[in-house]
Specification:
The chain is α/β, with parallel strands linked by helices and 297 residues long. The protein has nine helices and 15 strands. The strands form five sheets. Strands 2-1-15 form a three-stranded mixed beta sheet, with helices on one face.
């Protein structure tokens, strides 16, 4: 049994110890199901199941080599292709897991499925976003153990943020709201973590052109330095970086300028291929893994 006190995941940059993921076989199901869903979900192309499995196994191997324990979500008839992106259905705090309430209608079944899987592995659910509140895990970013930033846009609304603030009372000193742009509209997946990935307490990868001035200034005021993602690498998930430990991070292949910027900042960087599990579904490495246990950096 994992107790709430042992979760300690109010961080994006502390040493990662345990994550929750979903394999393509369980998320995608069959090639027939992929064919039925990919256009409806807004994917630019149909994912290839066998190739996706190979890419995902490579991704998982990075965690295994780093000593990270991996738990897997099972197949569930109420979830679809997007459930591959295990981060989004939940938020982890010191008291346990808070279940999201998805802004994308096609993903509404994921939090309930995640709750059942967490119960099976002994991870406590502390609370849920309910009613008209909408909140997705990709919009929730811990800046430190007492400060959380939440993106408000098409996937997360003001009511969802209000409920999250209430659930985190006593665990945080500050909740920063980052207003997200319209960009390509409600059909496009644009989470806060599409624009911001902390890699240490004082360093983050960001894509400034789509970030609000007020929120970017708030990050600067906290003494956070930036690795700026060039325009040429935004669409290829350059700003979506998963941190294994302070300044040890995982990036998606095809972003050499961002990788070079991270390395100049003193980061140890490893890249993985993700044409099937990332590019086609619009999710990067942070989306594929829901951190359950991290050390406080």
């Amino acid at each position: 049994m994992t107790t709430a006190a042992s979760l300690g995941a109010q961080s994006e940059t502390g040493l990662l110890r345990r994550v929750l993921m979903k394999r393509p076989a369980e998320a995608f199901g069959t090639t027939e199901r992929i064919a039925e869903e990919w256009r409806t979900l807004g994917y630019p192309e149909s994912p290839l199941l066998e190739e996706a499995a190979v890419e995902h196994a490579h991704f998982v191997s990075l965690f295994e080599r780093a000593g990270v324990s991996v738990d897997y979500l099972p197949a569930n008839a109420d979830t679809g292709l997007d459930s591959l992106y295990a981060r989004d259905a939940a938020v982890t705090c010191a008291r346990g897991v808070i279940l999201a309430n998805m802004g994308k209608a096609a993903r509404r079944g994921e939090p309930t499925a995640t709750a059942a899987a967490l119960a099976a592995i002994g991870v406590p659910v502390y609370g849920s976003i309910t009613g008209e509140g909408r909140l997705e895990g990709g919009d929730v970013v811990w800046l430190d153990e007492r400060t959380v930033a939440v993106g408000q846009g098409y996937r997360t609304n003001a009511e969802g943020i209000r409920q999250l603030r209430t659930l985190l009372a006593g665990e945080i000193d500050e909740l920063l709201v980052a207003h997200l742009p319209h960009w390509h509209g409600p059909g496009e997946c644009l989470h806060l973590m599409s624009l911001l990935s902390p890699v240490d307490r004082d360093l983050a990868v960001i894509y400034s052109p789509l970030m609000s001035v007020a929120f970017r200034d708030a990050l600067c005021a906290r003494g956070i330095a930036f690795v700026e993602v060039p325009e040429s690498e935004f669409a290829s998930q350059g700003s979506n970086v998963l941190t294994l430990a302070p300044r040890r991070c995982v990036v998606l292949e095809g972003n050499p300028l961002t990788r070079a910027g991270l390395e100049r900042a003193g980061c140890d960087v490893v890249a993985f291929p993700g044409s099937e599990i990332c590019h086609k579904g619009g999710g990067g490495p942070t989306c594929l893994a829901r951190p359950l246990v991290r050390d406080t950096p």
